[in-house]
Amino acid sequence: MSFRTEYMKDLMSRVEKNHPAQPEFHQAVKEVLLCMEPVAEKKPEYVSSGIFERIVEPERAIMFRVSWVDDNGNVQVNRGFRVQFNSAIGPYKGGLRFHPSVNLGVIKFLGFEQIFKNSLTGLPMGGGKGGSDFDPKGKSDGEVMRFCQSFMTELAKHIGQNTDVPAGDIGVGAREIGFMYGQYKRLQNEFTGVLTGKGLTYGGSLVRTQATGYGCCYFTEEMLATRSDSFAGKDVVISGSGNVAIYAAEKAYELGAKVVAMSDSNGYIYDPNGIDLDAVKQLKEVERKRIKEYVASHPGSTYEDGCHNIWNVKCEIALPCATQNELNGAAAEVLVKNGVLAVAEGANMPCTPEAVDVFLENKVLFGPGKAANAGGVATSGLEMSQNSMRYNWSFEEVDSKLKDIMKNIHTNARAAATEYGDADNYVLGANIAGFLKVADAMYMQGVAY
Ligand code: NDP
Ligand code: 2IT
């Protein structure tokens, strides 16, 4: 896809020039700006008030040194980031990623996506993201704790329940959130909802663990319903075996489907009998082992090194739930050839632009991450509400709110896509529906002279 208007083309060139060597950020901005061309034509006041120029620039980006001492007494140094991208509709909100591939450009892409995703949830949350190039893999609990404490010692100066509320992402789960929350409390002497994804004993919300994966399936079920179809009886391929992948698999089974393949960063397993999810949970959540160990105890299943070929496994529903750009144009062609009906992004930007084009051209139902994986942050928003009320809702109450939110996101994205002339294009619909609320708030709040 390329730009039709000089205005957006120029803006994109400026983003590339001002944020050099950040390809993931450029990719995320380009996708949104491409969808914004008809919006700019319909709403010239957004052009004259510089909304598009402002929305692609983070309000604030914080970078810091994180030093800590490993189990051998050696000093280690990592880099910490928090990008506070947009606070037009609420406090900055978004996860923290700990992975060696993290850099400023990756955090900016994630923070940018988060603006529109959070807006789509209908809850009052701005967009932000953070993290570190720290690799939790192979570290002891003590090392992870000392890293998290050092990370929070700096981060605490910049966050707060009404300012910026981080949560988990790749490499940051209940263990890391607990260590960071403990350190925040020690530093500030305050028990507040400054992080989400907390443990249930200290302010966490029921369903937050399951929310992204469940939400992704609720969204997919809504898309399928527009073609009088459902998960029932379908084969599903899910990449990843982390928080999002595991609970997407759990809900896919509950909705009557069979999950036949899952992966980690080393390779993928295929089990034609349906993957035994309890075994995957035990391996990945409890023992923190590699997924290839699954095949030893599951006759009939196979393991292949490398994650890419997972998309060669025949399925009707594909849910990429690992990381960005994990599914390219060639993989999308294979999925289409094998009869895929629906693809929903549990991860952030897992499909390359070429892959997205293949799905749209072939009328595959395609749920972009901003819409399809918004259930996680939506439930974080519900955790914030419960923290403010000092009250807890039941599992059923939170799950039913999550379901309603995913349904509304689907309805609103579809309505925006229809208004702009392409009803089945959820990329267009999600970007426009997410953008309009934020743009309107920015417009009404004026510019600082
Ligand atoms: P986890 O750390 O729990 O799991 C990540 C999974 O993806 C693991 O199986 C991991 O394999 C695999 N993975 C990570 N990096 C790579 C890579 N570079 N190449 C191949 N595989 C990789 O993270 P989450 O499940 O929380 O996050 C997964 C995706 O979902 C991310 O894109 C995240 O941004 C997105 N997301 C997460 C939300 C949440 O609430 N947690 C909400 C919305 C989106 P291994 O075990 O080998 O590292
Ligand atoms: O990408 C995401 O939406 C998340 N990692 C969850 C963010 C949150 O604040 O719950």
Short note summarizing the structure:
The model has no long low-confidence stretch (mean pLDDT 98). The two termini are 37 Å apart. Helix 2 (23-42) packs across helix 16 (426-445), helix 8 packs across helix 9 (243-254) and helix 15 packs across helix 16 (426-445).
Present the secondary structure layout.
Elements lengths: L5 H13 L4 H20 L1 H5 L2 H5 L4 E10 L5 E12 L5 E7 L5 H17 L6 E6 L8 H15 L8 E4 L6 H15 L19 H18 L9 E5 L3 H12 L3 E6 L3 E4 L6 H10 L15 E4 L11 E4 L8 H9 L4 E3 L8 H9 L3 E3 L1 H4 L1 H16 L5 H25 L6 H20 L4
Parallel strand pairs: 3-4, 3-5, 6-7, 6-10, 10-11, 11-12
Antiparallel strand pairs: 1-2, 2-4, 7-8, 8-9
Helix pairs in contact: 1-2, 2-5, 2-16, 5-16, 6-7, 8-9, 8-14, 8-15, 9-10, 11-12, 14-15, 15-16
Bound molecules: NADPH dihydro-nicotinamide-adenine-dinucleotide phosphate and (2Z)-2-iminopentanedioic acid.
The site of (2Z)-2-iminopentanedioic acid (2IT) has 11 residues, from strand 3 and helix 14.
Describe the protein's architecture and organization.
The protein is of the alpha/beta class and 449 residues long. Among the domains are: 60-191, Leucine Dehydrogenase, chain A, domain 1 (Rossmann fold); 211-363, NAD(P)-binding Rossmann-like Domain (Rossmann fold). The chain is 47% helix and 15% strand. It is built from 16 helices and twelve strands. Strands 9-8-7-6-10-11-12 form a seven-stranded mixed beta sheet, with helices on both faces. The protein has a five-stranded mixed beta sheet with strand order 1-2-4-3-5. Helix 9 links the parallel strand 6 (235-239) and strand 7. Helix 8 (208-225) crosses helix 14 (374-389). The longest helix is centred in the C-terminal third of the chain and has 25 residues, at 395-419. The radius of gyration is 21 Å and the shape is globular. It starts with 5 loop residues before the first helix and ends with a helix. The mean pLDDT is 98. Bound molecules: NADPH dihydro-nicotinamide-adenine-dinucleotide phosphate (NDP) and (2Z)-2-iminopentanedioic acid. NADPH dihydro-nicotinamide-adenine-dinucleotide phosphate is lined by residues 99, 101, 168-171, 173, 212, 240-245, 264-266, 307, 321-323, 346-348, 373, 376. The site of (2Z)-2-iminopentanedioic acid has 11 residues, from strand 3 and helix 14.
